Amino acid sequence: MQYRHLGRSGLKVSEISYGNWITHGSQVEEDSAKECVRAALDAEITTFDTADVYAATKAEEVLGRALKGVRRESVEIFTKVYWPTGSGPNDSGLSRKHITESIHGSLRRLQTDYVDLYQAHRYDYTTPLEETLKTFDDLVRQGKVLYVGVSEWSASQIADALRIADQMGFDRLISNQPQYSMLWRVIEAEIVPLCEKEGVGQIVWSPIAQGVLTGKYQPGQAPPAGSRATDPTGSNFISRFMEDEVLTRVQDLKPIAADLGLTMAQLAVAWVLQNPNVSSAIVGATRPEQVVDNVKASGVKLEAEVMAKIDSALGAIVERDPAKTQSPATRPGR
Predict the structure, then answer these.
(1) Which of 18, 54, 123, 217 is labelled catalytic?
(2) What percent of the chain has pLDDT over 90?
């Protein structure tokens, strides 16, 4: 396993992180989840990403139990706040009240005194940005959070947060967690250049495009039973990639992977790690073998010729529009 600094901070993270968005607490049984976490640790993954909203808070609980007994200083635990975790009018968003209550709930579920990175899961248009950043800064000063970041914020939103932090003397954002893959490159035009300049690293999710880039989904055929495309939680995200034109183009990546001695999943993960602004790629798993397969992408160097072949194979199906990075216009929930 290779390790990279998270942005311009002193924090090092494993090139491949283990995430439990859909799996823990919902798609797989807890024993299987624990086996996957153990496989990640055995593969020298040190970075674990979750969120309070995953599986209605159960994902944090499962991860906390799975990491129990592991030396706390040997891992980096990331979680997030924004989406509803209750039915009250203040049970979502990035207000001081919700952030403060949410971090306490996350720490309890994760069975830890602090998280290494606390991330704003979306941008909250209904809360002053100064309020959010001041609350984050307070949590850092209290020792409950070591670093702060965001997820799926636009370039202008990240820039505003950095400007306010500098003006007010708050801790700066060190990370952004966007969707990024061969098929979804919306961060490249605006977010990556800004973040490279400002020292903000990308922790990318869905580098395998919800499993589409494994090549297991065949054009003109129904998705395999039990796959991500049939899971009610993940199917909304994967549906954008399930068109026959996309699936046909993905099949054209198979000879490229084969020539390199890589699986399709390894090629997909290695591809996002070629971007120097990417600090870590998040992978999920329902079986330990998937973790073992994915970690082999760490340290893989793809030559410019290979990158060009991938671009040629995928052609115009790649999504590049920066406007696709969006947050709800109104706070979700009541």
Answers:
(1) 54
(2) 85
Give me the residue label for tokens 């998280």: 115
Q: Please tell me the distance from the alpha carbon of residue 219 to that of residue 230, in angstroms, as a whole number.
A: 16
What pLDDT shows up at residue 98? 98
What DSSP assignment string belongs to 32-59?
A: HHHHHHHHHHHTT--EEE--TTGGGGHH
**Would you call 54 a catalytic residue per the annotation?**
yes
Look up the pTM and report it: 0.93
- The reported pLDDT for the residue numbered 29 is 77
Assess whether pLDDT exceeds 80 at residue 232.
Answer: no
Give the domain CATH number at 151.
Answer: 3.20.20.100
Domain assignment present for 332? no
**Site of tokens 């049970």:** 91
Residue 191's alpha-carbon distances to 9, 22, 281, in angstroms, are: 18, 26, 16
pLDDT at 229 over 60: no
SS3 content of the chain, % helix, strand, coil (to 5): 45, 15, 40
Q: Where do the DSSP E strands lie in the chain?
A: 3-5, 12-14, 16-19, 47-49, 76-81, 115-120, 145-151, 173-177, 201-204, 278-283
Range of the domain at 33: 3-324
Give the residue among 193, 124, 115, 117 at the shortest CA–CA distance from 152. Answer: 124
331, part of any domain: no
The backbone torsions φ and ψ at residue 120, rounded to the nearest 5 degrees and listed phi first, read -75, 110
Structural domain count, the chain: 1
Q: Is 187 inside a domain boundary?
A: yes
Residue with tokens 């030559």: 303
Secondary element (H or E) of residue 161: helix 155-168
Provide the 8-state DSSP code for 321: -
Rounded to an integer, the average pLDDT of 48-69 is 94
Does any domain span residue 329?
no
Q: What is the pLDDT of residue 226?
A: 58
pLDDT at 23: 62
Q: What is the DSSP letter of 9?
A: S
* Alpha-carbon dihedral sign for residues 240, 242, 243, 248: positive
